[in-house]
Amino acid sequence: MKEKKKKKSKVFRRIILLLLFVLLIGGAVFGYKVYQNGGGLKGFLATAIGHDQNTVKNLPKIYCLLLGQSETLTDTIMIAEYDPQMQQASILSIPRDTFIGNNKNAANGNHKINAVYSIYSNDATYTLKEVNELTGLDIKYYLKVDTVAFKKLVDEIGGVTFDVPIDMKYDDNRQNLHIDLKAGVQKLDGDKAEQVVRFRHNNDGTTYPYEYGMEDFGRMKTQRNFLMALAKQTLKVENILRINSFIDIAKEHVETNLDFDTIKDYVPYVVEFNMADLKTERLPGESAKLNGYWFFEADEVKTAQIIDEFFLNPTTGNDEEVDTSGIDTSGIDKTKIKIELLNGSNSKAKLERIKKRLEKAGYTIVKTADVTETERTVIINRGDTQEAVKEELKLLVDTQTVSSGEQTDANITIILGKKDK
Fold first, then answer.
1. Tens digits of residue pLDDT in 286-319
2. Distance between CA atoms of residues 266 and 82, nearest Å
3. CATH number listed for the domain at residues 62-312
4. Rounded to an integer, what distance in angstroms lies between the CA atom of residue 296 and that of residue 25?
5. Which residues are CB-contacts of 43 (< 8 A; sequence separation ≥ 6)?
6. Residue 381: what are its φ and ψ, rounded to 5°?
7. Cα separation of 102 and 91, whole Å?
8. pTM of the model
9. What pLDDT, in 10s, does the model give residues 176-227?
10. Helix, strand or coil for residue 363?
11. Domain-wise residue ranges, the chain
12. C-alpha–C-alpha distance, residues 213 and 379, integer Å
């Protein structure tokens, strides 16, 4: 009997040792993969969700429209972009009073961008459509957060340390909004965080200083700064591990078309992003009174420039480069090639961006005009245009579609579409 017990004990010990060996080998392999994926929290998270060192090379930039809702209007509207390969990110605020109508003489309150969400039965896809037309981008995702979710998130991470820019004192009984904050660095809970991001002016009419940005402009700057502070604290290790709590808040209060599979692929790289490198700005333009209503009118040319700088080609700023080095046009006088540029994208920003790109490449734009909206960009060859020119133009306007047409005063007609390629 004792002999049998000894044998069983030996077998049991061998099994335990074998299991420990397997765990040790497994842990070593996992640890090596973590090392290959960059080590640290990024490497751990990347390995845990099945990434390898090549995964990030295939992750595209991600764009998302961020909407903050108070009452029925989306008074906070931002575009956020993150590039995991270049570790670059940008946020652009869009003023809530931005004019989106077609006729300035018939403008009314429904032509402000913040009204779109409620006009179309609280459907964020319509606001997304307006933002894409305004900027020339092709943003697919949106995330709408109400004030309850915002406050719960701030409280869940233990508050946010933030430098309140000025003394704030404002009361609105209709909205049950009461703001009472002193300037300076302090830890804000959810209620105080809501106060700081909703503040525009004090009860006595004073507001942010001119150099900071008055009224809505100042509020947008404060919102961007607070979002940076919020992101810094949320991306701490101890908060990343509380993901289930964040998911519960999101399920109850956040409206989005982003799915978990899309989000999780970016998490390992977002946690390593240096928030000091985040680029922030607001849509360029000026306030104007149209048909008796105050609006914000976007500057089309400057908007196209800032979209290039912040979202399409952030590494080179306004001087956007398209690599055409593999195409030899050295023996061609491109100034003699006349291009008719027609805008079927319904985006003036996109028209300005492509026009600038073509002129920089040496081509002559003889005409620009709006035409019926179309899905894809197409190049129409109206003469005996060299193959090298056609190949370069395809790269410059992001299309593979070239067709032939009747001869006109222009050598080439380019019809810009909403989508590229």
1. 999 999 999 999 998 888 888 887 887 665 444 4
2. 9
3. 3.40.630.190
4. 62
5. 33, 34, 35, 36, 37, 268
6. -85, 120
7. 27
8. 0.63
9. 889 999 999 999 999 999 999 889 899 999 999 988 988 888 888 898 888 8
10. coil
11. 2-56, 62-312, 334-416
12. 43
